[in-house]
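Q: Sequence in, structure out?
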Amino acid sequence: MLPYPEIDPVALALGPVKVHWYGLTYLTALAFAWWLAARRTRRPWSVVKREQVDDLIFYGALGVVLGGRIGYALFYGGEQLAQDPSWLLRVWQGGMSFHGGFLGVLLAMFIFARRHKIVFGDLMDFVAPLVPVGLGLGRLGNFIGQELWGRPTDAPWAMVFPRDPLQLARHPSQLYQFALEGVLLLVIMLWFSSRERPTWAVSGVFALGYGCLRFVAEFFREPDEHIGFQALGWMTRGQLLSLPMIALGIYLIVWAYRNASRGASPARRKRAK
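A: Exactly. Output:
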């Protein structure tokens, strides 16, 4: 068994102001997304201009934070929200949902695309490779904050989280998700998007990749105590929410390449000059 490396969740304290590592992971993710987006605008098939990157990241940040929080409240915290509606605003207490953030980003990018007259599918293909680093860093924040830990195990790398009331040796599933949803998915997305692909193909690979990797990671993650297993005696809420993403990913990939093979003219792209 490995000892848990106790890290103070507060990275920096200046009097009454406390900066948590979880918040810093979000800021770091946004900074990386800005940097990668700026680099991607140099490609001849980019639909986003360099001067549009600041607005793009701002829209994306709003979608992640608002969608992630509202999604968590609806998907995982319905009872708590009903008892205390103001809990929705207490974001410093934790509670963000990727699936809610995903829907929030979709809405934010739809608005951005309409405003800048960019084909929505092309914009989503531009944005998809920016996401995995944020997912990975968010999981590191979960690990430092001792939340969303794994199921009990006797694996030699198991850890006992000090905040765990049962004090059981558990999978450090946050690190598994960091490696899968963060590192591995980033490598896949950078490789696949390194060439021009049919509209919606890159987005499809992201949805399929994330859905599959999240589905696998859920086998090692402890289900939320107030939810438990939800289907067939073993499927978690996270796995159920991942199934539509897997289906959507397969559909988008097949649709994109069928359209390309039929010689259909690609959607009119607003290329950056």
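The chain has one domain: 18-261.
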